[in-house]
Amino acid sequence: MASPAGLRPALPPAIPGAAAVTACAAMAVSYVAVLYAPTVILRFPPPTSLRSFLHRRFACAAVASTASALATAALLRVWSLSNFADMLAVFGIRKDHLLQAVVIPLLLTSLVYAGSFINRLWLLASMRGGDGDEVGIGCTQRLVLWIQTALDDVMVWRNYVVAPFTEELVFRACMIPLLLCGGFKMSTIIFFSPVFFSLAHLNHLFELQQQGCNFVRSLLIVGVQLGYTVIFGWYAAFLFIRTGNLLSPIIAHIFCNMMGLPVFSSPRTKGVASVASLAGSICFFWLLFPVTSPELYNTRLDQCRCWHGFCNWK
């Protein structure tokens, strides 16, 4: 494969920057708005359980993601590409370099959670009760139980499948090629595109208030969520641009959802978690550019400022 998008610079036309930004804003709004379409527009009765509520939202997210992908394909005229694999590769959907795209971002992201790992291991050791074998058996039993219940747990599907795949498809695979084709610099896209991602979480403010949470508390909760989504959005956009593979931000998204907020300090570990967190963070930033070098994820790179040929489309 020649490049992540498998493209030659002269194929699809570039689009105006204003059109790219407008399209991204429309995708962000529609991704949230469609979640309320069943009850507000279609007048469906309210869901009677959490499972039916989330199943309805899964369907809405699939519709929004498909619409965004089709809109991106139309704006970039990807059907002018002769090879279907090249069309998919515009969105970072590729079958080459899969091992690198999964393992390296996963290991890189885990460095930020060094303090969290120490905290959990410390907690596990404190529960040992003097018999290491019992701990091993307990861990194994818990893992088996988690696997057994996961497939039937609608929240597992929400947090580890639907949200990572649909959000990364819309907010990275659709928006970033549009912005690259719109002439924006990579650094601008990395720091600017997460704004759309964060705005798509503002509906949580409305939902928290519906659940009886007061406005100030709801604002604080959503404020923390927005800050976290902005930081993660920077990282996810960076991964997508550097690797050209959609799997990289998806894997990072799933892992971060599993781990939650990183632990930077924990009284129970007597400072060990803090040291581990600091060391992990230093290693993360030290390795960030070397292990995401585009050469590791692509057989050949287009000779252009974005490496993937988007910025040269005319």
Q: What topology emerges from the helices and strands here?
A:
Layout: H1 17-33, H2 37-40, H3 50-76, H4 84-89, H5 98-112, H6 114-126, H7 132-150, H8 154-181, H9 186-192, H10 194-199, H11 203-210, H12 215-243, H13 247-259, H14 272-287
Helix pairs in contact: 1-3, 1-8, 3-8, 5-13, 5-14, 6-14, 8-12, 8-13, 9-12, 11-12, 12-13
Integer average pLDDT: 83
Count all strands and give the number: 0
The major β-sheet equals: none
Strand content: under 5%
- Total domain count: 2
Give the N-to-C terminal Cα separation.
Answer: 21 Å
In terms of per-residue confidence, which ranges show pLDDT below 50 for 5 or more consecutive residues?
1-13
Note the quaternary state here: single chain
Rg, Cα atoms, Å: 21 Å
Q: Fraction of residues in helices?
A: 55-70%
Shape: globular
Helices and strands: which structural class? mainly alpha
- Helix-strand topology string: HHHHHHHHHHHHHH
Number of helical stretches of at least 4 residues: 14
Subcellular location: Endoplasmic reticulum membrane
GO biological process, one term: CAAX-box protein processing
Family: Belongs to the peptidase U48 family.
Protein name: intramembrane prenyl-peptidase Rce1
